[in-house]
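Attaching the record inline, Q. Sequence:
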Amino acid sequence: MAVKTILVSQPRPETEKSPYFDLAEKYKLKIDFRPFIQVDGVEAQEFRSQKVNLAEHTAVILTSKIAVDHFFRIAKEMRFDVPDTMKYFCISETIAYYLQKYVTYRKRKIFFGRQTIDDLALLMKKHKSEKFLLPCTDILQDKIPETIKEHKINFTKAVLYRTVAADLSDLENVYYDMLVFFSPAGVESLLKNFPDFKQNDTVIAAFGPTTAQSLLKNNLRLDVHAPQPNVPSMPAAIELYIKNELKKK
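Structure, as predicted:
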């Protein structure tokens, strides 16, 4: 079926140079952005109950921008002055650059991988003398701590934020040709908000294997999947789908 309206379950891109806007202009699409999940920070009192001593750690593992924000938030709330000697191991270069919001990039020891925890763990392995802190959500993927453990890296997991379903009740009578998901939590949010949701002709796109698995587990049809060798990004995957549909006409 022809796709003309798309709902992306993420915040609107901060820059107008986003490939989503190029896509909308090229194919005359209406693309809306709406986060299906929201992140609530764990309060200092709850953090204390985890018995994690920030001062005991010499390095931080950062898997998302949200993890960066909440690490520095909880440090401030706990009145912990992050030392200049702290090392940061980021899952991607994008997150490493995001650290500049909190630290002077050139003065810190910042390392980054190439998007996967496997790649980052190999980097961390070269710094085995460090004691690592892993700031994370309450629904952290098992693969992340398991991979770190496999490499016998000394680390502590600290839940600093919770991922919960956003209120989507205002979308009850709004229809989109395509829904785009980036996490299992986004899929769960859809079904929590609309337990009677029927996919019918709605095209569903998923980014990442765990998101795809979540759709299938909930008996939803997976129509668009990224990343793939020929479509490394979600905008590329959406464009390929649209091109294939246009060929059918």
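The chain has a mean pLDDT of 91. The domain at 40-162 is CATH 3.40.50.10090 (Rossmann fold).

More tomorrow.
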